[in-house]
Amino acid sequence: MKAEVGRDMMKLKFLSSLALVLSGVLSGCFTTTKPPEPTNFVDGMGGMVDEQLSKQISDSLAQIETIKPGMTREELLKVFEEEGGIGEPYYRTFCLRSCPCFKVGVEFIFSDPKQTDERPTDKIAKISKPYLEGGMNID
Predict the structure, then answer these.
(1) Contact between 112 and 72 (Cβ < 8 Å)
(2) Which ranges of 27-98 would DSSP assign to H, the alpha helix?
(3) What's the structural domain count of the chain?
(4) How far is CA 70 from the centre of its chain?
(5) Is residue 133 a contact partner of residue 63, using CB atoms and an 8 Å limit?
(6) Cβ proximity of 61 and 131 under 8 Å
């Protein structure tokens, strides 16, 4: 019993720490002209949880989950944009348009077996789980 309570406490502390890290990483992703009113509350372990940030992250994940294998490159580009750098036409990394810190790797099936270039009609074969990658300046 004590071990289970200890694991639960560690999970909660981890999630609280993750929320703090995400708030720093994602702070440039969600901007408004007026700073939002604080919506924090104290969780069961005495840590602060930012409801507004949690909702923004949840909304971003919901956007990401709209993209599925079988959809076209054109459909993908309505939600994501290509990450800069060198890539292959059959595999690329994409950034979420609304928050470029969220990224996914996407593998495509060409719409024409003889093609060597990217086309809007290419189909998504696989999409990775979303991950965070910072290090960018967002004004």
Answers:
(1) no
(2) 51-64, 73-76
(3) 1
(4) 20
(5) no
(6) no
The answer to whether position 82 is within a domain reads: yes
Using CB atoms within 10 Å of the CB of residue 108, give its burial: 0 to 12 exposed, 13 to 18 middle, 19+ buried.
buried
Enumerate the H helices of 27-137 as residue ranges: 51-64, 73-76
Q: Please give the torsion angle defined by the CA atoms of residues 113, 118, 120 and 125, in that order, rounded to the nearest 10 degrees.
A: 60
Q: Tell me the pTM.
A: 0.66
Q: What is the DSSP letter of 72?
A: B
> What does the alpha-carbon distance between residue 72 and residue 122 come to, in Å, rounded to a whole number?
5
Does any domain span residue 139? Answer: no
User: Is residue 17 situated within a structural domain?
Assistant: yes
What is the domain range of residue 23? 2-132
pLDDT digits 0-9 by tens, 43-87: 556 667 778 888 899 999 999 999 999 999 999 999 999 998 887
Say how far apart CA 136 and CA 125 lie, in whole Å.
Answer: 29
The answer to whether residue 63 is domain-embedded is yes
